[in-house]
């Protein structure tokens, strides 16, 4: 036990710093840093698909508030005891700085926010979700550092050399001081980053699109979440002997698998478009704007100069019906640039009748 404790992962001594009267929380910083990383990845991937410039940042402002509300609602509904159970405080349901955000609530309502933001620009949700998927995994990995600083959501007791040491103030009741626990925050962080590589490889290898990258992300994440959730010992609803989040992950995995298969069959050989039907930009118009909005990108088409009537272009007379040949072409060579070719006067008959 002594050697295990010496090899254990230490917990941070604090998770909050005072900047004058303002508390700076590691949990909030982790969420913020994860969000910035996800936006950066999304912006690069979406513009690479041909998406209008600055779409990502505009839609993120719709996604984030919806996602935060959804994440908190999911946490409170699935873990109601600290808020509505014996000794609970309902007002703490609003204290998101103390931790407690459910990923599936964030994804569900965040998708609603993204749909609203994209619809205003005439863009489809599926390609945007595909571009976002790897960034979501990176954001979730970084966000787990907030659990580490809060000393929360750790796993069962362990004697492994990477066991996590928890301060007595954060111990789950029933465990003696000095007990080491599975660092589930670290397991999920490593799993998510590894799945980023799998996701990007599968997208390129199988040319996934039409939302299938996003549904593959859901499947990969839930696979890891099932076994990680099984290790956790924090308070949770138990259904048929399993934590509610385990059942939720299993159900969502099956739903994602169904969507992945069905979309693949329906879109086989179908080219993917970023735009909603009837909202595709036309030549010379501004793409991705509504009334009163600043333009984000312009479709530019290079125009060829109009031919001068009567001029010969590639052996044909411009403006002549049926691609008529220039008079006398078959019998006389064309004049070179150095020859002096007199122009016909207004009184001459140039119809070819003499």
TrEMBL record:
Annotated pathway: Protein modification; lipoprotein biosynthesis (diacylglyceryl transfer)
Keywords: Cell membrane, Glycosyltransferase, Lipoprotein, Membrane, Transferase, Transmembrane, Transmembrane helix
Compositional bias (Low complexity): 304-313
Region (Disordered): 304-354
Annotated residues for binding of a 1,2-diacyl-sn-glycero-3-phospho-(1'-sn-glycerol): 144
Chain intervals with Acidic residues compositional bias: 337-354
Principal location class: membrane
Subcellular location: Cell membrane
Membrane topology: Multi-pass membrane protein
GO molecular function: phosphatidylglycerol-prolipoprotein diacylglyceryl transferase activity
GO cellular component: plasma membrane
Enzyme class label: transferase
Known EC number: 2.5.1.145
Family statement: Belongs to the Lgt family.
Function: Catalyzes the transfer of the diacylglyceryl group from phosphatidylglycerol to the sulfhydryl group of the N-terminal cysteine of a prolipoprotein, the first step in the formation of mature lipoproteins.
NCBIfam families: lgt (TIGR00544)
Official protein name in the record: Phosphatidylglycerol--prolipoprotein diacylglyceryl transferase
Gene: lgt
